[in-house]
Amino acid sequence: MGGVKKEKAALRRELLARRDALPGRAEKSRAIQSRVLALPEYRRARRVLLYLSKGSEVDTWPLLDCALAQGKEVYAPRCLERPGEMAFYRVSSREDLQAGAFGLLEPIPGRCPPLERGQGDLCLVPGLAFDREGYRLGYGKGYYDCFLAAQPVRTVGLCFEALAFERLPRDGFDRPVGRLVTEAGDARPGKEGFL
């Protein structure tokens, strides 16, 4: 295992434990949800790509329900057979989901139409941690980095403030987000006031 890969793996274990123990996660998630709903990028978006939260992640389920109620097209990720590859599929309700890879709920194949390349308006990106340049520490499988490298879409990372850092280890495959939202605020990476 290379140096950056080892460093990321160790940091991932530490930060996952920190996030799991973070007090007030539900309240912090609600603040993040409110900030997302107020973003100009979200308000303008017709097609929203949304991760379906699990465990101690920032809760996106209320965002799913809200986007559907607002008449937006909502797309959720599904892991494909090739390692590291995923695609987004349109969901019209929670009924369109079933258990999939890594214990995540995913769109039901054959029932949910796929997102066409370049058709997403906004992608809400999960991350264990983010840094001031918009780079994220994910779960180590590279799904979002591969997807974002192939799909032109505006990106917003969702993260608890306690997991926003000056700089995270990164390699050539990592893709930064265009905006980060925490319970304390939101900003574009690299701009004054970001972190």
TrEMBL record:
The answer to whether UniProt assigns keyword Lipid metabolism to this entry is: no
Provide this UniProt record's keywords sorted from A to Z: ATP-binding, Ligase, Magnesium, Metal-binding, Nucleotide-binding
Keyword set includes Nucleotide-binding: yes
Q: What is its EC number?
A: 6.3.3.2
The record, for Pfam families, names:
5-FTHF_cyc-lig
Q: Where does ATP bind?
A: 8-12, 136-144
Query: Could you tell me the Gene Ontology terms of the biological process aspect for this record?
Result: folic acid-containing compound biosynthetic process; tetrahydrofolate interconversion
Q: Which family does it belong to?
A: Belongs to the 5-formyltetrahydrofolate cyclo-ligase family.
Which NCBIfam families does this UniProt record tie to the protein? MTHFS_bact
Listed name of the protein: 5-formyltetrahydrofolate cyclo-ligase
